[in-house]
């Protein structure tokens, strides 16, 4: 029993020992595995450490390289906390603004804030190198820890600022010099015009005396030279005003067609002297009134048409007006020498002309087209040029001018008429024919009298228009033949000079005449006429002194320059007036005070120079107007200012002082004649 129990116990003990041995074996195996894993992890950690050390070396090297680059920069670099403390400043910053980086600017100017929030600031500092200007680019930079710093990168721009200051000073000096130049030119303008007034006016008076042919030639050359000098002075003064930016634009309604016809009529004598035809034509749809600056448009046209007349030696010049949708088109054509293609751009430059030959032959300052270009730029207009050397040129101006009063409907009033036009100039011919066709007529153009004679014998003609350019005898022959052929209306076309030599049109067989340059409405009026009619000219004083007004109006003349006074007195006398000369505004006022007090005979007109010693014309006019008002005068005496300064502000000053008109020197006799005519009729004078 005991043995069995021992056996069982031994068996159990053996089992336990076996289990324990198994457990020990398993534990030993696990420990071995853990040891190997730990060894593997240790190896991996070692490799990671080596890699991390490599990365730290690379980062340190990169940071050192970056720091070296920043330190080597010429630009100033600084970082600050939002509170203002400096956390980094490169060597350039420390060297210029100090190691603490807390230098305060003497001046700070914000230049720009960019869309990304960066600020561009210019600051002036007192530095170790003296006062310096730094241009900063300032921005907010986020850091890896989530905080934000202010970074500023600056560049020394002291040299640039100094250059800008020098430029500003130079511009201010140039502006001051330009203003001084303008004042000088205004003064010189007066000084030039005063003697020129005497030269040109005396030449006019001398030409009215008995001269032989040689003397007449000399006087004509004297007057031509004076006018050329006057034109040159006016061009230079106009250019100076435009260049100085003193040209201002007005906005007022005006009749552009009438203005253009006036320019053509003004330049016609010069064209006719050269044997050229000069004509203008406005499309029937052109507005009666447009809005703009009439004085500047007139200046543009005078320059362009005047240039065309100056440079054209044979043929003619034409001005055409077209309007479309708020834009005016002015086309100036000529049959002159043309312009080389490579010179078209240059002719609008200051003091430039088409070529040296042009400058030597025709003279001039070379400023006319430069003035035109600058005025058009000011008026938002444009100009284009097309030209064929040897055939002529065409200048086309476009101007944005709105219509104030549209054109009246064009009524064809010559429907069914047969019209023959003979021998008109190159542009007259086409313009007259176009208008006549628009009026409903059937038009035939004849370049010579022989072709016209054949037509007169071949078929009935209602209207015959003959340009005297075909020759006086040929024109008379055509008139006789036309009368025999029962032509309804015979009209001669001639210049004012030709009219004197040709004699009475009726005596030559014509029913009427048209004066060059022919206005469109005058031509249409002749087409409408059914019976001969030549209106008598109004009886007003002749510039040549052939007739006198029914009264001799007394004119108070205030002029300190003896030559100009002599010229004005002789001109007034030839116009039928009785001038009374005083030498300054004080004498003029004293004389008028006597008149207003009833102690002296009244004057019909006063002509005062603006600049006079003791008392100028403006002051005298104001005193006279005050005296008239104090005495309750109903009809004031017309006062005319005469000045060598023709700027708009000079005219405004004269009108503000009480003058009724302001005339430029040299005096134009037709203007004086008009005021004398008004002086003869108190009602008209008062209305004017």
Walkthrough of the structure:
This protein is an alpha/beta fold and 688 residues long. It has six domains: 72 residues; 81 residues, no CATH class; 81 residues, Signal transduction histidine kinase, dimerisation/phosphotransfer (DHp) domain (Helix Hairpins, Orthogonal Bundle), CATH 1.10.287; 154 residues, Heat Shock Protein 90; 111 residues, Rossmann fold; 134 residues, Rossmann fold. It has 19 helices and 24 strands. The strands form five sheets. The chain has a six-stranded antiparallel beta sheet. Strand 23, helix 17 and strand 24 form a beta-alpha-beta unit. Helix 10 runs parallel beside helix 11 and helix 15 runs parallel beside helix 16. The longest helix has 71 residues. The chain is elongated. The N and C termini lie far apart (169 Å). The relative contact order is 0.06. The C terminus is likely disordered.
The appropriate CATH architecture of the largest domain is: 2-Layer Sandwich
| Name of the CATH first level of the largest domain | Alpha Beta
Largest sheet: 6 strands, antiparallel
Query: Residue-averaged pLDDT, rounded?
Result: 80
Radius of gyration: 47 Å
CATH superfamily of the largest domain: Histidine kinase-like ATPase, C-terminal domain
How much beta, percentage-wise? 15-25%
Shape label: elongated
Q: Percent range for helical residues?
A: 40-55%
Outline the low-pLDDT stretches.
359-365, 530-550, 682-688
With helices defined by DSSP (H or I, 4 residues minimum), what is the helix count? 19
Spatial arrangement of strands, main beta sheet: 2-1-6-5-4-3
Distance between the first and last residues' Cα: 169 Å
Compute the number of strand runs. 24
- What's the domain count? 6
What would the CATH topology of the largest domain be? Heat Shock Protein 90
Structural class: alpha/beta
């Amino acid at each position: 029993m005991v043995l069995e129990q021992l056996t069982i116990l031994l068996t159990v003990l053996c089992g336990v020992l076996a289990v324990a041995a198994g457990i020990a074996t398993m534990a030993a195996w696990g420990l071995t595995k853990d040891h190997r894993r730990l060894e593997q992890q240790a190896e991996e950690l070692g490799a990671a450490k080596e890699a991390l050390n490599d990365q730290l070396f690379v980062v340190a090297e990169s940071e050192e390289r970056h720091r070296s680059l920043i330190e080597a920069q010429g630009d100033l670099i600084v970082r600050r906390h939002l509170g203002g403390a400096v956390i980094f400043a490169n060597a350039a910053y420390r060297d210029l603004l100090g190691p603490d980086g807390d230098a305060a600017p003497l001046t700070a100017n914000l230049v720009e804030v960019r869309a990304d929030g960066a600020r561009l600031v210019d600051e002036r500092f007192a530095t170790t190198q003296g006062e310096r200007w730094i241009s900063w680019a300032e921005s907010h930079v986020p850091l890896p820890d989530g905080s934000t710093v202010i970074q500023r990168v600056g560049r020394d721009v002291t040299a640039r600022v100094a250059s800008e200051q020098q430029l500003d000073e130079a511009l201010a000096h140039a502006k001051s010099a330009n203003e001084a130049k303008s004042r000088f030119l205004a003064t010189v303008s007066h000084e030039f015009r005063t003697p020129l007034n005497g030269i040109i006016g005396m030449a006019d008076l001398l030409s009215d005396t008995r001269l032989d042919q040689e003397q007449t030639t000399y006087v004509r050359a004297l007057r031509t030279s004076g006018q050329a000098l006057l034109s040159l002075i006016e061009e230079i003064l106009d250019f100076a005003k435009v260049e100085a930016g003193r040209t201002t634009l007005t906005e007022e309604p005006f009749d552009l067609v009438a203005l253009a016809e006036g320019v053509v009529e003004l330049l016609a004598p010069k064209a006719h002297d050269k044997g050229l035809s000069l004509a203008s034509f406005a499309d029937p749809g052109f507005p009666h009134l447009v809005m703009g600056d009439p004085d500047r448009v007139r200046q543009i046209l005078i320059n362009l048409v005047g240039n065309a007349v100056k440079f054209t030696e044979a043929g003619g010049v034409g001005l055409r007006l077209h309007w479309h949708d708020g834009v005016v088109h002015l086309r100036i054509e000529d049959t002159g020498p043309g312009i080389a293609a490579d010179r078209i751009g240059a002719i609008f430059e200051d003091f430039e002309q088409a070529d040296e030959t042009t400058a030597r032959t025709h003279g001039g300052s070379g400023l006319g087209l430069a003035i035109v270009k600058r005025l058009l730029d000011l008026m938002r207009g444009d100009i284009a040029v097309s030209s064929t050397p040897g055939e002529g040129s065409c200048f086309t101006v476009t101007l944005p001018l709105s219509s104030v009063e549209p054109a009246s409907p064009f009524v064809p009033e010559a429907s069914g008429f047969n019209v023959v036009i003979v021998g008109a100039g190159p542009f007259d011919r086409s313009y007259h024919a176009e208008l006549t066709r628009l009026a409903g007529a059937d038009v035939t153009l004849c370049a010579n009298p022989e072709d016209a004679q054949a037509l007169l014998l071949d078929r009935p003609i209602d209207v015959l228009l003959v340009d005297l350019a075909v020759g006086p005898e040929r024109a008379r022959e055509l008139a006789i033949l036309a009368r025999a052929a029962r032509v309804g209306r015979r009209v001669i076309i001639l210049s004012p000079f030709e009219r004197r030599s040709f004699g009475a049109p009726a005596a030559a067989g014509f029913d009427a005449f048209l004066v060059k340059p022919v206005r469109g409405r005058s031509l249409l009026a002749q087409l409408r006429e059914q019976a001969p009619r030549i209106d008598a000219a109004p009886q007003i004083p002749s510039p040549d002194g052939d007739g006198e007004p029914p009264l001799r109006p007394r004119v108070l003349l205030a002029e300190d320059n003896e030559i100009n006074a002599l010229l004005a007195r002789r001109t007034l006398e030839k116009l039928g007036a009785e001038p009374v000369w005083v030498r300054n505004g004080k004498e003029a006022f004293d004389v008028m005070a006597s008149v207003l007090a009833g102690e002296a005979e009244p004057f019909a007109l006063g002509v005062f120079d603006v600049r006079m010693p003791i008392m100028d014309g403006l002051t005298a006019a104001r005193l006279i107007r005050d005296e008239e008002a104090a005495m309750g005068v109903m009809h004031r005496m017309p006062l005319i200012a005469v000045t060598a300064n023709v700027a708009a502000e000079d005219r405004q000053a004269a009108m503000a002082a009480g003058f009724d008109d302001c005339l430029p020197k040299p005096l134009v006799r037709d203007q004086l004649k008009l005021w004398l005519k008004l002086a003869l009729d108190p009602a008209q004078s008062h209305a004017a």
